[in-house]
Amino acid sequence: MSESVVHIDEPVVAICINGSYSDERNRRDIYKCTRGTWKVSRNRADRARYALAVYHGVILEVYQIYQWHDAGTTGDSFGPAPGRSEFVGRLAPDNIRDKYRGKHMPDRFYGNPIRYYHC
Description:
Elements: E1 12-16, H1 27-35, E2 36-38, H2 42-45, E3 50-55, E4 58-70, E5 85-91, H3 94-100, E6 114-117
Parallel strand pairs: 1-3
Antiparallel strand pairs: 1-6, 2-5, 3-4, 4-5
């Protein structure tokens, strides 16, 4: 994987998972850490096609978002969390994953773990 800075040109929500992910976890855990539960602008999040799992400024994985839900309302969630949301999705197509995985984000996350691009 390359260490270059990514140029984002799809509608994505970048999600910093530093607080919930550990290097030793597997791909399933990356998805679970990325999908929820978050305080998002549902209006903006609904426009995102992809979610970027960002760990210490590097994109670990890319997911295609099918739909956002209230947190705790889907089968594989962390449980109810009023005012928070989670998405349901799957791995993005290989051409999208290859474009983003392993690349550094163009800006740093300060405070808020959610960043929107082209939403």
